[in-house]
Amino acid sequence: MRTTVLGMLILGLATACGRDATKSTGGTAAEQAVGATLTVRDTTITGTFEAAGVAEPFQRATLSTKLVGSVTQVLVREGDRVAKGQVLARIDARDVDAKRAQVDAGIAGAEAMYQDAQTQAARFRALYADSAATRYQLEQVETGLARAEAGLRTARASRDELNAIGDYAEIRAPFSGVVTQRFVDPGAFAAPGTPIVEVQDAARLRVSVTVPPRVASGLKTGQSLDAAIEGHPARAIIEGAVPAPAGAVYTVNALVENPKEAFMSGSAATLRIPDGTRSAILIPATALVQEGDLTGVRVTVGGITALRWVKIGGPCNAPAGAAACVEVLSGLTAGDEIVVGSH
User: Fold this and answer.
1) In the predicted model, what is the mean pLDDT of the chain?
2) What residues are paired with 12 via a beta bridge?
3) 98-105: long-range pairs with CB below 8 Å, 24+
4) Farthest CA pair distance, the chain
5) Do the first three CATH levels of 3-48+277-340 and 65-172 match, i.e. the same topology?
6) CB of 227 closer than 8 Å to CB of 236
7) 216 — pLDDT class (breaks 50, 70, 90)
8) Distance CA 69, CA 60 (A)
9) Is the domain covering 51-60+199-274 a CATH 2.40.30.170 domain?
10) Among 7, 9, 10, 82, which has the highest number of CB atoms less than 10 A from its own CB?
11) What would you report as the CA-atom Rg of the chain, rounded to the nearest whole angstrom?
C-alpha cells in the first residue's frame, strides 16, 4: 500500500557520525545533512487501497445481422483499423429485394385508393352542402377516406420496416476502432444474432475493480485517481461506484484516456484509492542500506551505531524539491535515531 505525506516530516537533527552529538530539531527529511543522525517520528499520512483489475476498451461491439442468408463479402481482417460507418461485410439480400418490390406495389395501390377516396369525399361534401346528399352518405364517404389513409400509412410503414431490415445486409462499423475478431468467411450461413465481426476502440479504457464498502464510500464520480497499467503510471477518472451483484463489495469503474493506444486492452491494471489517514514512519531513502535481499538502516543507540534490518513499504510522496522517502513498516519505532547517507 502506497502512502501520501500529508505534512512535513518534523525530525531531530544531530551532528555527523563520529563527532560529539550536539542535537538540534526541525527540518524535513530532505534537509538532513549527509552523514547526519535523524530522530524518527510518527507522521500522519493518507492510506491508499490498491485494487487490481483489467483495462478493457470503453467501446466494444460484436456485430451481427437480422437477415437469414449467405455471407457474400467480408471486407476486413483482424487488426484492420476501420472508420465509423465503414462497410465490414455484406449479406445476401435478394429475398429483401423481392419483398421490397411487393411492398412498393402495395404502396402504389394504397395511394390510388387514397386519391379516389379524397375525390369521393370532396364530391359528397359539396353535395351535402347543397342538400343533395344525406349526412349518412357523407359519413360513409368520410369513413372510406379515413380507411384509405390508414391503409396508405400501413403500406408506407411496411416499406420503412423492410428498409430497416435491408440495412442489415451491410455490416457497418458503429465507431472508429480496430477489428479484433472475424467470425465468418464468404459463403458462410448467417442467421439473426450470428456474430460477424467484432470491433473495439482502445482510445479510452475502462478499469473495473472491487473494493470494500468503506473504501467506496468516499468516492465521487469524476474524481481523479492514480493508476498503473502493466506497471506504467496513468491517471484514471472515476466513472461510478456501485454494489457488486455478489454483495459485500462495490465495483468501481474508472476511465483512462489512451489516445495513442500506448496501453493495450486486456492489460493488468491497478487503481490506488484513498483510504483514510493513519500514522506511519517515513525516512529518507538515503538512510537505507541494501545487502543482497535484505534492507536495513543504521541506528544509533547510546553513541553506538548498529545496522538494523527493517521492512519497508512503497515510496511516499515527498514535498516538491525534497529527497525521496520511504515508509518503514517494521523495525523502527518513533524516537529511534538513524544515520542518513553515511554509507
Assistant:
1) 85
2) 25, 39
3) 99/162, 100/159, 100/162, 100/163, 100/166, 103/155, 103/158, 103/159, 103/162, 104/159
4) 130
5) no
6) yes
7) very high
8) 25
9) yes
10) 9
11) 37
**Cell 343533395, residue?**
132
The C-alpha cell of 322 is what? 525534497
Assigned architecture for domain 65-172: Orthogonal Bundle (1.10)
Q: Which helix (H) or strand (E) holds 296?
A: strand 294-301
Which class is domain 3-48+277-340? mainly beta
Q: Where are the domains of the chain?
A: 3-48+277-340, 51-60+199-274, 65-172
- And the C-alpha cell for 201? 476502440
Nearest to 271 by CA among 193, 320, 194, 219: 219
Compare 222 and 34 and report the one with higher pLDDT: 222
**Residues belonging to the chain:** 343
- pTM to 2 decimal places: 0.62
Say if CB 141 and CB 120 are below 8 A apart: yes
- In angstroms, the first-to-last Cα distance of the chain is 28
Give 155-206 pLDDT, tens digit per residue.
999 888 888 888 889 999 999 999 999 999 999 999 999 999 999 999 999 9
C-beta of residue 281 within 8 angstroms of C-beta of residue 326: no
CB contact at 8 A, 216 and 201: no
CA distance 255 to 203: 11
pLDDT at residue number 14? 32
**Phi/psi at 247 (5° precision):** 85, 165
**Do residues 283 and 338 lie in contact, with contact meaning Cβ atoms separated by under 8 Å?**
yes
- Round to whole Å and give the CA distance between 18 and 308: 18
Instruction: Please write the tens of the pLDDT for every residue from 64-123.
Output: 998 888 999 999 999 999 999 999 999 998 888 788 888 889 999 999 999 999 999 999
Q: Record the cell numbers describing residue 167, joined without a space.
A: 440495412
